[in-house]
Design brief:
The chain has 122 residues and is mainly alpha-helical. The chain has one domain. It has five helices and no strands. Helix 2 crosses helix 3. It starts with 9 loop residues before the first helix and ends with a helix.
């Protein structure tokens, strides 16, 4: 099954097909979560196409297997959305709102902030 929810929009379905067509992932790698998110940081197919970065230089954006591509693509999404490195990212901040492009759920964005704090030892 292609990583798209059973009620996926036409745009999401076409984006998922484009990921396979351009050779970023094989069809059997198109495994997603409930709403069709793909990869380690759970990008929707449209975000995969829009923000995906081939950072490891192999000619493909692979958000399932390439840690370099995953981190660069996630950074690209956040940067493009207005996230400012070094600025606060708690609820109510501009960075918290910038993370909305990644995931609209407040609890998801709070969890990202929690793990970011853990990584820097806060």
């Amino acid at each position: 099954m292609i990583a798209a929810a059973p009620t996926c929009s036409r745009a999401s379905c076409f984006a998922a097909l484009k990921i396979v067509q351009r050779g970023d992932l094989r069809l059997n790698d198109m495994i997603g979560a409930y709403a069709g998110e793909i990869g380690q940081t759970q990008f929707l197919p449209s975000s995969y196409i829009k923000y995906g970065v081939d950072f490891d230089g192999d000619g493909h954006v692979d958000l399932r297997h390439s840690v370099a591509d995953v981190l660069a693509s996630t950074a690209n999404l956040l940067h493009t959305s207005g996230f400012k490195m070094g600025a606060p990212y708690g609820e109510g901040t501009a960075n918290f709102e910038a993370m909305r492009e990644w995931n609209r759920a407040v609890i998801y964005r709070k969890t990202i902030g929690y793990f970011a704090d853990q990584l820097v030892g806060r």
